[in-house]
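Hi Y.,

Following your request, here is the sequence exactly as I used it, all 199 residues.
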Amino acid sequence: MYHETVASSTGKNWIVKLGSCWGGWDSNGNNPSYHSPGGYRIMRDYQIHFSGRDYTLPNFGDGLSIKERWNKLMMTSYRYLDITQCSDIGIVANWATVSENDVDGSLLPQRTSFSGSGTPQYEFGSEASRTMWRVAFDAAVYPCESESASNFLAPIHNRLAGYFDPSAATGSTWPEDTLTNCKAFDEQPEAIIPMDDWI
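Below is the corresponding structure, written out as tokens. Let me know if you'd prefer a different format.
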């Protein structure tokens, strides 16, 4: 956590980076699929309950306990996922940039261009599709703490359930228009385009 996350300017949020040397807030960019709240919960619980530690954990200088810091990272991840998701379709882009409102700590989407790994920014592609599995893992492993996961997964679940056709003659039980182009926010420069072989 010490090298792979970064606090916001106000300290109200704590976001995962894309590695020790890049990613985070604003134009530094981020990737929805790097957020793994279920994994953070496992690491939180392990660090809280592991009693055989013969080393000192890093000092972040913020006075937070291990539990509070992991919980803040999970909260920020879900805030990030919420504002980068198309609320009607439920998909996210491969890459997205966010900033923080300095007054109330809310996250704000940015219009900044950002990409990595050779994948287009505004595509629900090989990067973005992992997001659903990571959030589903959180809901499966921590069902008693899964309200945020359930809220995030509901739009795409409803879309898949509504378009499911087991008698389809196309070779797929979902028609091609199950996932359509969408925007996470009105001023988003381009629509998020689902990759052709998304299912």
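The mean pLDDT is 91.

Thanks again,
Q.
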